[in-house]
TrEMBL record:
Ranges for domain DUF234: 298-395
SUPFAM superfamilies assigned to the protein according to its UniProt record, in alphabetical order: P-loop containing nucleoside triphosphate hydrolases, Restriction endonuclease-like, Winged helix' DNA-binding domain
Domain ATPase: residue ranges: 2-192
Alphabetized InterPro entries for the sequence: ATPase_dom (IPR011579), DUF234 (IPR004256), P-loop_NTPase (IPR027417), Restrct_endonuc-II-like (IPR011335), WH-like_DNA-bd_sf (IPR036388), WH_DNA-bd_sf (IPR036390)
Annotated source species: Methanotorris igneus (strain DSM 5666 / JCM 11834 / Kol 5)
GO molecular function ontology, one term from the record: ATP binding
Name of this protein: ATPase
């Protein structure tokens, strides 16, 4: 089964079919599907695939490459000599950071190989890496010897919510939101899930060898040497502490500065900083959110309960009882994707160019979609609840009240409510959507 990645495959296919040398960097968090994508792109093409390991890479690489280019057996054991035998070939090196760890000079060495041997050939060199900090600093940064050599960069993101339907064609949208809250759009986790979701989760948590216990440690090991404080920060955010002050309070640190930790967590893509949509990027009023649902799920439900899970006394009810509240946040992310899809297909009253949250002094609007040129704005409230007519009226009144606080007085205003289920969607005072619309629109 291979799901989506159409745009990435198109970009790779253009590179692979070009008449010139190409050096493509593919990176993204572990489990996201880099290897599968790279291999899919060369499915019907002769290629060398090498997964770099912790040591002896020169020897191992030669063995793999010789399956495609037997004459490489005669090459001296060094990278420059190897690449002389590999001109015009497709070469994929997975987990490139392992090569850097084994030999930090590899970067200058590859720079030389490109400049002296490959630049004027049709060789396609594709390197893959999971450590975002290392790929960023050593490969992609302007300080890297390889900086000017790459001809393409692909950052692999999670699959979209709508793609979950392809993994689980028989699941309802409600069940898909529940699954998304756990696995996000990360193929490795999606692949593990069997329906019904709650039975799967209960069984997985009970397993002595459950991957849930170790996965996040394994991911963090790739980015941080000492993850304790990072973990505490992620736990704080997963329990709804989003401002700097709230996070500090949760950690119980009064004076020490946690901004370097936050900066590193942003750089390694564990979290992101958001600002109210109407503010300038320089604002101090940023808030921190965990980037993928799997990490949020782990820090909300697994990390605080590791001992109980280990002792086999953890009850899945602990998660079930809280899950709807947690999904409130997950559903906002789903709703945003849904609106972006509607926008793309011209199914909204105007085309927005910007979408994001807004907050000020205890007041919040879940989503605001803007077109500054046309001076039109859509205010959106997202509710992971079944809404009756009277609920809709109440929410709409409150949304209208809040819309007056945002300061877009001369804009033409529109309102939308997105609920789990909404009764009487014909109400014409605002746009109303629920999971029933997803089949039509996603
Ligand atoms: N587009 C996809 N459709 C379906 N399954 C996928 C897709 N991409 C990846 N997978 C599955 O998800 C799992 C992880 O994918 P893959 O090994 O390619 O990720 P990766 O980013 O290279 O991970 P790592 O860095 O941890 O090795 C694999 O079992 C793969 O089969």
């Amino acid at each position: 089964m291979f799901i989506n990645r159409e745009e990435e495959l198109k970009a790779l296919s253009e590179k692979l079919n070009s008449n010139t040398f190409e050096f493509v960097v593919i990176y993204g968090r572990r489990r996201i599907g880099k290897t599968k994508l790279a291999l899919k792109s060369v499915e019907n093409k002769e290629h060398i695939y090498y997964l770099a390991v912790e040591g002896d890479n020169l020897k191992h690489f030669k063995r793999y490459a010789s399956k495609v280019v037997p004459t490489i057996e005669y090459a001296r054991e060094d990278w420059e000599a190897y690449f002389n035998f590999l001109k015009d070939k497709i070469i994929i090196i997975d987990e490139f950071p392992n090569l850097i760890k084994e030999n930090p000079n590899i970067l200058s060495l590859f720079q030389r190989i490109v400049d002296v041997h490959l630049k004027d050939t049709k060789t396609k060199l594709i390197i893959l890496g999971s450590s975002i900090s290392m790929m960023g600093e050593k490969v992609l940064s302007y300080k890297s010897p390889l900086y000017g050599r790459k001809t393409g960069v692909l950052k692999i993101k999670p699959l979209k919510f709508k793609h979950l339907k392809e993994f689980f064609p028989n699941a309802t949208w409600k069940e898909l939101v529940e699954i998304y809250g756990f696995a996000d759009g990360i193929p490795y986790y999606l692949e593990k899930i069997k329906l019904p979701f709650w039975d799967y989760l209960e069984e997985e948590i009970k397993r002595v060898d459950s991957f849930l216990k170790y996965e996040v440690d394994f991911l963090m090991k790739y980015e941080f040497e000492e993850p304790t404080t990072y973990k505490k920060i992620l736990e704080a955010i997963s329990f709804g502490n989003h401002s700097l002050g709230e996070i500090k309070n949760y950690l119980g640190i009064k004076h020490s500065d946690i901004t370097p930790y936050l900066k590193n967590l942003i750089e390694t893509e564990f979290i992101e900083r958001e600002i109210p949509i109407t503010e300038s990027p320089k604002t101090k009023r940023g808030r921190y959110y965990i980037k993928d649902n799997f990490i949020a799920f782990y820090f909300r439900y697994i990390f605080p309960n590791l001992s109980a899970i280990e002792e086999g006394i953890f009850e899945i009810g602990e998660i079930k009882n809280d899950y709807n509240q947690y999904l409130g946040f997950v559903f906002e992310k789903v709703a945003k994707e849904f609106l972006i899809e509607l926008n793309k297909n011209n199914k909204l009253p105007f085309k927005f160019l910007n979408i994001g949250r807004w907050w000020k002094k205890g007041e919040e609007v879940d989503l605001i979609a803007l077109n500054k040129n046309e001076k039109r704005v859509l205010f959106v409230e997202v509710k992971w609840k079944n809404l009756k007519g009277k609920d809709v009226k109440k929410i709409l009144n409150d949304l209208k009240r809040k819309s007056e606080l945002v300061g877009l007085d001369d804009y033409e205003k529109y309102y939308a409510i997105i609920g789990r289920r909404v009764e009487n969607k014909e109400d014409k005072d605002c746009l109303l959507f629920d999971l029933g619309d997803f089949d039509r629109c996603l």
